[in-house]
Specification:
With 346 residues, the protein is of the alpha+beta class. 53% of the residues lie in helices and 17% in strands. The protein has eight helices and nine strands.
Length: 346
């Protein structure tokens, strides 16, 4: 015979003992916490007990003096969506509200939450007697009220911005936690899904999108023309700059050549002036020499040099002959001219 005692055998023994003593088993599943209510107690305190019974356990109590309640401690979901038959309701159940600029908006919102296990006795005594009642009466009611105001802070255009919707969802989570904390509930997340506008506004949005696309196309074409014009202007500016540079270079070259020619002419003028000055100074010196005591002798020597090699006929004059020392040059020249006229070059 196997001497090992199995859990099933132990449970059977305890059940038999409980039946003999008049007690019944009260259990919690793996995802539940239990709360006991003592309806009548000859000894101790009646009412909801503060003890929280852990998941996956079985306890035995007298049936006529005990009430037993369990609460799911796992994540629960409140799903409010527009799709028929998908969320918590058969029909459309999305949040309906107005944006800050007055448009009607429908927004799918899913809220996940869980109870605070330590507060299960408080929930039973003051809030709800079951998970369903807690979800429908408390969580769902509050979740459909306050988020309307928070998401209604967005204008219509901002609903297209996922970041802004996420910011409002986080704000809604924070405020819901503040509101549901006293109920023993903790909100895990607030998620947004699809959103829609009324039919007229949807049509206006569609037209606006078409107009925006056309405007974008026109803007692109305008920008292309503007870029083409900028390119043409840049090319023209480059051409003007090139012509300007060429003209400036030609001007500078002409200036350099003119300056060089001017310098050359200045040097030539200076040379001419120096030469003229030297000649003038020579003439002055000659004049000074001629005007002196030896000037007449120099003239005579020059005449003699000029007459060297020429045939000269001496003509007697009165007074006994020609005296060179007292020769009058003018008379001599006249005489020499007369001889040339009379006899030619003899």
């Amino acid at each position: 015979m196997n001497t090992r005692t199995t859990p099933i055998a132990i449970a059977a023994v305890l059940a038999c003992a409980a039946l003999v003593s008049g007690c019944l088993p009260y259990s919690t599943a793996d995802n539940e916490v239990g709360v006991r209510t003592v309806k009548w107690a000859p000894v101790g305190k009646a009412g909801v007990q503060e003890e929280v019974y852990s998941p996956g356990q079985t306890h035995f109590f007298f049936p006529f003096t005990t009430d037993w309640h369990t609460f799911d401690k796992n994540i629960q979901t409140v799903e409010m969506v527009s799709a028929v038959g998908r969320g918590d309701r058969e029909g459309r159940d999305e949040l309906l509200f107005k944006s800050i600029d007055g448009n009607d908006i429908g927004l799918d919102v899913t809220i996940t939450y869980k109870i605070v296990p330590e507060k299960a006795p408080h929930i039973l005594q003051h809030v709800a007697r079951s998970d369903r009642e807690l979800k429908e009466v408390i969580v769902r009611t509050i979740a459909r009220s306050k988020p309307r105001d928070i998401f209604g802070e967005l204008d219509t255009e901002e609903f297209y911005d996922a970041v802004k919707r996420t910011e409002k969802a986080e704000k809604a989570r924070t405020i819901l936690n503040e509101m549901l904390s006293d109920y023993g509930v903790e909100v895990d997340r607030v998620n947004t899904g699809d959103y829609s506008f009324n039919v007229e506004y949807e049509a206006a949005i569609a037209k606006k999108k078409v107009a925006d696309q056309e405007a974008q196309r026109l803007n692109s074409e305008t920008e292309a023309k503007r870029e083409e014009f900028r390119t043409a202007v840049e090319q023209a500016n480059a051409k003007v700059a090139r012509v300007h540079a060429e003209a400036d270079g030609e001007y500078r070259r002409a200036v350099i050549e003119a300056d060089a020619e001017y310098e050359k002419m200045v040097k030539q003028a200076e040379a001419i002036m120096a030469e003229g000055k030297a000649e003038a100074e020579g003439v002055l010196e000659m004049n000074r020499a001629l005007a002196g005591s030896g000037g007449e002798a120099m003239v005579k020597m020059a005449i003699a040099e000029a007459l060297e090699g020429k045939r000269i006929v001496m003509l007697p004059t009165g007074g006994g002959g020609l005296d060179v020392r007292t020769t009058d040059i003018n008379d001599l020249l006249k005489l020499y001219g007369i001889q040339n006229l009379a006899g030619g070059d003899k």
